[in-house]
Amino acid sequence: MNMKFPWQEEWEQTKRQTLQQLTTPFPNPTEILTRTTLEQLPNIDRRTTFSFESVELARSAFAGETNQDIYLRLGNPTVRQLENMITLLEARHFCGDLATPNLLHLLAEAPVRSLAFSCGMAAISHTLTALLGTGDTMITDKVLYGCTDNLLNIDYKNLRGIRVVEVDVGDLAEVQRTLEQYPETKVIYFETPTNPTLAVRNVKAIAEIAAKYHALVVIDNTFATPCLQNPLRLGADIVIHSLTKYINGHGDVLGGSVTGPAGFMARNESGGLAYIRRLYGGVMDPGQAVSILRGIVSLPLRMEKHCDNAEKVIELLTKHPSIKNVFYPGLGSAREIASGQMRRFGGMVAFELHGDLSVTAKALNQVVHQEVGYIAVSLGLPYTVFEHPAGMTHFFVPEKERQRKGISDTLVRMSVGLEDSKEIIKTLKNILNFTV
Hints:
By secondary structure, the protein is of the alpha/beta class. Helix content is 39%, strand content 13%. The strands form 2 sheets. A 7-stranded mixed sheet has the order 1-7-6-5-4-2-3, sandwiched between helices. It has a 5-stranded mixed sheet with strand order 8-9-12-11-10.
């Protein structure tokens, strides 16, 4: 059994008590966004340093006895607005009564916090750096975003001496067996839905297994967003977002966020995420925060449209003769799990074509000739994006590993945009014609 973090026992107790009281699995984020925006519009503060009226007050700020800002790398009013918004969206059930006159006041005593970072990978790497050291063990899913895969399976193993045990997290029996073999495991890390195969992982079941070993469940929730899924309500411990994607939603700014136990997030000494951010410096600029705050207000509306359009895309793909496999949370065995933990099934779709790499390239190369759609990385943008994982996001994952993880040469990941669904379908039909 692993040694608990200093804050972990209190967090586990708080989590159990809070989750036992929950009655609604799918909270509506619209009220939170509307009320917090009316109460506190984004107001950019670009100061990198903040003055003090005395040495004594400065010392108190550095000691954490006051909340006065010191330096942009340590905290900033504008960035904090965004962090508060993320906390309310992702972990409102820990924050108190929605009937309070000012939602932001709920955060003062809440057992959860959020921190913002310069990008999604900064959020991931800072979090795991804070949680893991040389000789520690973590369990990861076999399917991860390409850069995350490289970070864990190359850098963490070779440079930091961390045991990274890769399993199919979708196989609960395998998760149980692995924890029995490595009871010292500190972290179980996965995405749901997964990137790029859109597999759905049973958060509640995994969290229940992990709790027996006091292993922390850390989830990348980027594909679902807080509008469609709240992993903390399902028993997860820490939730990460690439804010670059759906939450910003406009493809014009990077950002990342982490939401988790206040004892971990706000801790400014060794072992805390605020400490790691202070030293490693993956901080968010106030300009980034303002852009994301403005984008986040329309998140619920955008996600509904992304979901609507994706459902129409699925209707075509599941019937088209050029398609070998379709991957989507609302299909097959994934649907039952997704229905229990997601409000809707999201705007991401993946599919495999009949044929080989040349057939796939021929089809995707036609995207540039269509009125709708682009070949690009990233996702959650206003426009539809096609991406070829084997040649783009997962290019640096060794080929044999890619194949083992189910990322074939004919796999296409599609981020369904906000365009007219008829135009998206027209693009798909036109490019699929080049596969025959």
